[in-house]
Amino acid sequence: AVVTFIIIKVINAVSSIRATAKDEQTGLDVTEHGEEAYGGMGV
């Protein structure tokens, strides 16, 4: 658990681990990969 905590702190110092609220609302499939996972299915 200690090593995992240290790794997460190092990664978070270099870049953000968490997505922004806007990206979450838009959908991470669109913001991260540029496509809809369930396009047109109404899910």
The count of β-strands is 0
Instruction: Report the average pLDDT across residues.
Output: 87
Question: What is the percentage of strand-forming residues?
Answer: under 5%
End-to-end span in angstroms? 36 Å
Principal-axis shape:
elongated
Helicity, in percent?
55-70%
The number of domains: 1
SSE topology string: HHH
CA radius of gyration is: 15 Å
Query: Helix- and strand-based class?
Result: mainly alpha
Largest sheet: none
| H/I helix tally | 3
Low-confidence stretches: none
List the helices and strands and how they pair.
Blueprint: H1 2-14, H2 21-26, H3 28-33
Keywords:
single chain; mainly alpha; 3 helices; 58% helix
Notes on the protein architecture:
The protein has 43 residues and is mainly α. The chain has one domain. 58% of the residues lie in helices and 0% in strands. The protein has three helices and no strands. The radius of gyration is 15 Å and the shape is elongated.
Summarize this, please?
The chain has 43 residues and is mainly α.
